[in-house]
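The freezer alarm interrupted the setup, so I double-checked each line after restarting. Inputs confirmed:
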Amino acid sequence: VAKKNAKQKRRDVPGADHLARHCNSQRVIRDLITREIKGVWPEAFELRVTLNETYLSTHWMEYFLRDDIDKQFKEVVKALRKKREVKANSAVARLKAGPVVDAGTARGHSIRIRDRSSQSNPGYAGIEGMPSDNADRELLAMLANECCVQVRGVHEIDL
Amino acid sequence: MTTPHIDTSRMPSQNWILVVQKLLQSRDPSSPSLAPARLPPTSSFSASEAQVSPLSSPSLELQLFDNAAELKVLFSKIAMHLSPEWRATIFEQVDALLKLEDWEDDSSLIKIGTFSTFLRFVIYMAPDQCPSLGVGPTGHLLAAWVKGAQRITVQFLPNDQAIATLIKEGTREKETVAWRGHVVDLKLFIERFGAAEVMSEVESGKKER
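Predicted 3D structure, all chains:
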């Protein structure tokens, strides 16, 4: 019953807000000489088929505080570190929620972004409605390029 | 009649071919001679093909080293087609992708068959610019060519197959196109989409072949 109630309480993340997606160093595109981050691969937004993932794990940045983006990134990394190890060479991609939903609509998917935060995982949010087989490559490319407004390295966030 | 004797001590065992055939199913499971044989698990020659997520033994460090070595050996076989600068850049990136210090739960070893497809593509396509490399969640090698707002990202699959996404500025908005097929056709697709210049020489990240 408690689980059902928790599900009912899940709010949609507003379209003007932002989501953070952690990308390990293997999914970050860097300049070959300067090592500056140039973006992330579409594969950073794939659902893990082997784990039967039904939604994409993200964090709702405005959940932590409204206007300070630097602090939002720090809070996201802090929340991630409660659950797993986060390496300095990995990165966090910042996506605007509205365009994520719009990209889904354009590709024929009904996407919802819902708050899944809990005491142990504050700010946790899921992008629901993505194809479970990752077959829609255009959608993944749109998430990586058109919806992604910024990618910041964890070493930079930790400073 | 004497039993024929075969002296196997002088046979070159390294040239033997072992053929394993499926055993006949026993109608009487109690008969030990006809019971299905329990074969020991076979070991793979390639660590990267055996598993993508190296959480079990041998040690992670050893698996990462073996994976990088396999890829470099494969590269060395076609090294004459690419410049020393390409070799250095590819090796440097392979080492970075398989770095123990950066390894996370969702990191993957690189499947050698996908690296082979990548090499075939760069030799055939002959891009001026060396790509930025990555690894997908399933161990497939990724390559990206970026030039301003335009970019080509390719996920290389085994057996010369690939999945690519091409992004370029349209007259009003960005155009995104996805493609899947043989890497030989990828070259034609990139040229037809008018994105070949993304792979040509650029100010930063320039690497001569």
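Quick read of the result. Chain A touches chain B at residues 24-34, 38-39, 41-43, 46, 48, 84-90, 137-138, 140-142, 144-146 (CB under 8 Å).
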